[in-house]
């Protein structure tokens, strides 16, 4: 579900663009249930205070005035002096985000910064002079920094969601060191104090904060299981099954499936796709039965997958129009004459006959998969080749529009793009198997396995530039420079781009100035700040640099 | 390692007799490293450090993916990376997990002069018994694979134990457990040879005509074996010996000088024995006694 934008001044206005009706007769178009999910969310947030009379407290939701307040936008606003405070939870933007110089500059303009992390992150120490790897002028920085140590996953109960959509419960294995507190404890403390201030001092609009439902056993540190149950959702009144006219679900019962959610205020659910994760049968995320009945990587009783414990989305498409599996050796679901059966939960009406012609892509209004996305892609509907914002060549297809015209670029960032004249080589960034992002450099063993920052340069370029194996180099972009050792490798060969040999430099990302590994500049010192037209993911992966041989830095 | 399995020895350094094995039969074990499945993630190195409580120093980048830079008293296994361009001009990144090969005929054990400092168990594992090690470094010279390293702290020699403590209680070595691609396997030597055979057929069918098993007979076979895509050229894999040999000095010591010395001692005893048989025992006569007394007296007079 989406946050409303400020043009959507009423619930009906908001719903108009959400509740997709079937485009062809008989199609599922599951988003026609949007209102049920939305009202159940409002009930989870505000309980009795969200009622039919106040449009389920629609007016209490914040409304966006721009399409997106993401991290690219946030740092631009800091840099422009439009954002004074930043709460940075489990995120290390000084390492992880492009154009490190801009990130440091932006953080320096804040009034306050709160960091919440189990690790001593670079972001928490952006203000400290660590030499060339973080040349901060502490005396000139007025940002007040609150560094709050948090528990890590092994020090608390909770669930982790992986990219296969499994919610896997985990159990606390050890007490947290020092003063570390759970994120829940910290966020709750913040909420309780803010609410107290609203209660005492009023303010422009205290209702959404004062009206928030907060019925936890410990109002200062809600139990993760209680929160999970709230996400799952409950019946708020007895739910009557219209078919039999009997009470199917008693008031207070945890719900089994999002199909039970209603738009009349009789159900609540903090996140409709999670309904079913914690039911009256217990914590489904804590299941640990690894049985894989068909030996095809589907273990239906291991943890719980959103939505509905469905392991493969749109699995109706695994069977032909008659309901027979396309690959009989690997059946996922099939039609047995009266219903859909198989190892997975059907992503389809469980008794909808194949002959009814309902398309398998039930979230789409037409029921079909899409080769071209009508109105969903920023640069659609047809695929097109664009060069990266920084590229050694012009787009041979259309030089006048070389790069994506709808990529999100702020004017200051555009000014810091380099040209191939000064930065003739292509660089890309990547991870190594020895490290996980910027976390494991804090772990001694991982630090031993890859202790120090380096870049990878092909033999041809190394020869041309007189760079020796393991010798020191300076890699620079328009935005900054990295001085480190070079690994001269056969693995990178010059590419022929538009008829010209083009050298590529590989920049592994893992080193910073905190932790156990040796100090590094960080690959994102070099990268440009560009938001992809659709995902808004920064364009880390292709940019221009120069490389020169240099002397070893003074020890 | 400490001496936990002394009843299972089949070989013991600097000892001609090994204790008889009172316990039941044990299978020969082996670790099989399928180099063609390795992704070079170093999870094995990490697991080795964790299990054996090894914490080498944080080093530097030294112009290679290899870290630490070499095996050491606290680096018992090390991924070695070689960039090889094949005949077709394609790049192959040959990554090999280096460490003790647990030779059936261990050069280190042969060379070791400290009784019981190096032992071989019935399952084939070659283990260093640290409290008996005298730090002489002969094992380093004796090893055909350049594996043992002497600690500067305690002057003892260290290398991979094949997790003999884990294996003794029915667990696989730590590196085997940690490997995410199944490139490291562990079991009876016969099973591992069988496993390797199947994999080699598969590799051959994929165009690696020279795929094969590295189980060098020069050292009587090893209890750590490799599946190599280029078994005809083991040295491509960061200098894995094409034909590992125990140094001639060790062979000279064990094969010639030591037996010669022992023979010398035996000969001297034998000569004495025959002298006793033929000439009888040395006896002191009355004249000898009187002569001795006289020499003693003259000495005393000179002093006074």
TrEMBL record, chain B:
Location in or out of the cell: Cell membrane
GO molecular function (one): 4 iron, 4 sulfur cluster binding
Domain 4Fe-4S ferredoxin-type: 29-59, 91-123, 124-153
GO terms for cellular component: plasma membrane
Cofactor binding notes: Binds 4 [4Fe-4S] clusters per subunit.
Keyword Repeat attached: yes
Biased composition (Polar residues): 1-18
Residues bound to [4Fe-4S] cluster 4: 112, 133, 136, 139
Function: The beta chain is an electron transfer unit containing 4 cysteine clusters involved in the formation of iron-sulfur centers.
Annotated [4Fe-4S] cluster 2 binding sites: 48, 160, 163, 175
Protein name: Formate dehydrogenase iron-sulfur subunit
Electron transport listed as a keyword: yes
The organism's place on the tree of life at top rank: Bacteria
Disordered, as annotated region: 1-23, 284-304
One Pfam match: Form-deh_trans
Residues holding [4Fe-4S] cluster 1: 38, 41, 44, 179
Keyword annotations of the record: 4Fe-4S, Cell membrane, Electron transport, Iron, Iron-sulfur, Membrane, Metal-binding, Repeat, Transmembrane, Transport
Amino-acid positions noted as binding [4Fe-4S] cluster 3 in the UniProt annotation, renumbered to this chain: 100, 103, 108, 143
Organism for this UniProt entry: Dyella marensis
Gene Ontology biological process terms, A to Z: cellular respiration; formate oxidation
Classification via InterPro entries: 4Fe4S_Fe-S-bd, 4Fe4S_Fe_S_CS, FDH_Electron_Transfer_Unit, Formate_DH_bsu_Proteobacteria, Formate_DH_C_sf, Formate_DH_Fe-S_su, Formate_DH_TM
Compositional bias ranges of the Basic and acidic residues kind: 292-304
Cofactor(s) recorded in Swiss-Prot or TrEMBL: [4Fe-4S] cluster
């Amino acid at each position: 579900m989406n946050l409303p934008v400020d043009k959507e001044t009423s619930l009906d206005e908001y719903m108009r663009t959400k509740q997709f009706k079937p485009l062809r007769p008989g199609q599922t178009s599951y988003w026609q249930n949007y209102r049920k999910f939305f009202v159940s969310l409002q009930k989870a947030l505000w309980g009795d205070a969200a009622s039919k009379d106040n449009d389920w407290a629609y007016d209490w939701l914040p409304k966006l005035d721009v399409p997106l307040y993401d991290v690219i936008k946030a740092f631009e606003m800091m840099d422009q002096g439009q954002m004074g405070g930043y709460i940075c939870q489990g995120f290390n933007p000084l390492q992880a985000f492009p154009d490190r110089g801009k990130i440091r500059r932006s953080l320096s303009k804040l009034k306050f910064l709160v960091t919440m992390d189990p690790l001593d992150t670079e972001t928490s120490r952006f203000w400290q002079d660590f030499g060339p790897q973080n040349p901060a002028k502490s005396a000139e920085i007025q940002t007040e920094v609150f560094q709050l140590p948090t528990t890590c996953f092994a020090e608390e109960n909770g669930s982790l969601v992986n990219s296969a959509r499994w919610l896997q419960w985990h159990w606390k294995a050890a007490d947290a060191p020092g003063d570390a507190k759970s994120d829940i404890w910290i966020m709750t403390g913040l909420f309780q104090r803010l609410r107290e201030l609203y209660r005492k001092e009023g303010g422009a609009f205290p209702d959404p904060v004062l009206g928030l439902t907060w019925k936890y056993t410990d109002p200062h540190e809600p139990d993760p299981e209680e929160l999970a149950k709230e996400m799952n959702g409950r019946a708020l009144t007895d739910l009557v099954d219209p078919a039999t006219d009997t009470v199917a679900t008693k008031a207070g019962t945890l719900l089994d499936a999002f199909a039970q959610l209603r738009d009349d205020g009789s159900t609540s659910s903090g996140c409709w796709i999670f309904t079913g994760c914690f039911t009256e049968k217990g914590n489904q995320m804590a299941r640990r039965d690894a049985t894989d009945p068909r030996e095809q990587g589907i273990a239906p009783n291991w943890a719980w997958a959103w939505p509905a414990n469905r392991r493969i989305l749109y699995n109706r498409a695994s069977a032909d129009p008659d309901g027979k599996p396309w690959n009989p050796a690997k059946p996922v679901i099939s039609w047995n004459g009266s219903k859909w059966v198989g190892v997975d939960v059907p992503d389809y009406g469980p008794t909808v006959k194949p002959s009814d012609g309902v398309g398998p892509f039930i979230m789409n209004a037409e029921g079909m998969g899409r080769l071209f996305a009508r109105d969903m892609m920023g640069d659609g509907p047809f695929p097109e080749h664009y060069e990266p914002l920084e590229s050694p060549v012009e787009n041979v297809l259309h030089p006048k529009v070389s790069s994506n015209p709808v990529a999100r670029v702020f004017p200051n960032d555009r000014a810091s793009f380099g040209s191939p004249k000064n930065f003739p080589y292509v660089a890309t960034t990547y991870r190594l198997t020895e490290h996980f992002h910027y976390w494991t450099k804090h772990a001694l063993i991982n630090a031993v396995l890859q202790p120090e920052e380096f870049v990878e340069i092909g033999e041809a370029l190394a020869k041309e530039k007189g760079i020796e194996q393991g010798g020191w180099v300076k890699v620079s972009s328009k935005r900054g420079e990295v001085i480190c050792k070079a690994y001269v490798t056969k693995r990178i060969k010059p590419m022929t781009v538009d008829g010209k040999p083009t050298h590529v430099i590989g920049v592994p990302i893992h080193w910073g100035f905190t932790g156990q590994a040796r100090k590094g500049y960080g690959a994102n010192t070099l990268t440009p700040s560009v938001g992809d037209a659709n995902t808004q993911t920064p364009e880390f992966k292709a940019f221009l640099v120069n490389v020169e041989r240099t002397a070893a830095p003074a020890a | 390692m400490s001496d936990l399995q002394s009843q299972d020895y089949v070989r013991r350094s600097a000892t001609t007799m090994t204790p008889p094995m009172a316990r039941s039969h044990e299978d020969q074990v082996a670790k099989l490293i399928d180099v063609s499945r390795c992704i070079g993630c170093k999870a094995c190195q990490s697991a080795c450090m964790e299990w054996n409580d090894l914490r080498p120093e944080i080093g530097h980048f030294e112009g290679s993916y290899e870290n630490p830079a070499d095996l050491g008293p606290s680096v018992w296994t090390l991924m070695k990376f070689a960039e090889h361009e094949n005949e077709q001009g394609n790049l192959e990144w040959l990554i090999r997990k280096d460490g003790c090969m647990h030779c059936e005929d261990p050069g280190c054990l042969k060379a070791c002069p400290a009784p019981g400092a190096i032992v071989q168990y019935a399952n084939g594992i070659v283990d260093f018994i640290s409290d008996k090690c005298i730090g002489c470094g002969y094992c380093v010279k004796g090893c055909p694979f350049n594996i043992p390293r002497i600690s500067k702290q305690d002057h003892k020699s260290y290398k991979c134990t094949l997790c003999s403590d884990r294996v003794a209680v029915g667990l696989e070595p730590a590196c085997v457990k940690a490997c995410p691609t199944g490139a490291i396997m562990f079991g009876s030597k016969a099973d591992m040879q069988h496993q390797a055979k199947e994999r080699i057929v598969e590799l051959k069918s994929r165009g690696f005509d020279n795929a094969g098993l590295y189980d060098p007979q020069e050292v009587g076979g090893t209890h750590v074996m490799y599946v190599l895509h280029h078994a005809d050229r083991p040295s491509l894999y960061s200098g894995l010996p094409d034909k590992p040999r125990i140094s001639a000095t060790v062979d000279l010591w064990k094969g010639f000088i030591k037996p010669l010395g022992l023979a010398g001692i035996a000969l001297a005893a034998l000569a004495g024995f025959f002298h006793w048989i033929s000439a009888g025992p040395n006896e002191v006569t009355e004249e000898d006694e009187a002569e001795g007394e006289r020499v003693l007296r003259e000495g005393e007079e000179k002093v006074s």
